[in-house]
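Quick one, probably user error.
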């Protein structure tokens, strides 16, 4: 969880050029694999998906093309989606609500933000007119731009730097907002309440 938060706090410094971006993704994936390392199979699956995603991203920076950008984004969606599912299963499975489960639930929230950021990027690759911004949405800035947009959407702050234009992009944005609201209202609040009740006993 701390690595995800640190990446957001320092995003201006770690997303400024291809080398920093690649390093950032590599660090995130290493921490992600470590988070699921209690299960060897889960760690192997996360490692394989992450390795393919990182390799395609590296190639996309070296040789920009639609196919490489599309492929890298698709595998990052798969990677973050897989991480969300694995950590969420750990959080909601039976047993005592511990501090680790609370932190796990918060981590899932941040992972969802990154997942949606890549979904938006995927949408933008397929249709460059699906989003517009106060500044041109160039390929080199897509990662940080859509992470910024995803956080604004899931928290309902509605930053105006980037706007969803196409109907499909708007539908995705509404779906993320609903997902974020229900996640906070139902899961995290329930876990915190259960943890507090257990602590008082």
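Nope, works fine. Designed sequence:
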């Amino acid at each position: 969880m701390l690595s995800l938060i640190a990446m957001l706090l320092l995003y201006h410094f770690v997303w400024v050029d291809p080398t920093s971006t690649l390093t950032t993704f590599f660090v995130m994936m290493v921490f992600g694999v470590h988070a699921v390392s209690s299960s060897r199979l889960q760690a192997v699956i996360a490692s394989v998906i992450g390795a393919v995603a990182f390799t395609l991203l590296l190639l996309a920076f070296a040789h920009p093309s639609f196919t490489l950008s599309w492929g890298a984004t698709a595998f990052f969606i798969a990677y973050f989606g897989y991480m969300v599912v694995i950590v969420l299963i750990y959080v909601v499975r039976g047993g005592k609500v511990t501090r680790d489960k609370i932190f796990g639930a918060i981590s899932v929230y941040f992972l969802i933000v990154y997942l949606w950021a890549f979904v938006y990027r995927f949408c933008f690759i397929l249709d460059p007119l699906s989003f517009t911004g106060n500044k041109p949405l160039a390929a080199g800035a897509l990662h940080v731009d859509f992470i910024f947009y995803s956080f604004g959407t899931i928290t309902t702050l509605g930053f105006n730097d980037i706007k969803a234009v196409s109907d499909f992009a708007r539908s995705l944005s509404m779906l993320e907002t609903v997902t974020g609201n229900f996640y906070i209202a139902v899961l995290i609040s329930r876990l915190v309440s259960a943890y507090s009740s257990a602590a008082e006993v």
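The first strand starts at residue 131 and ends at 133.
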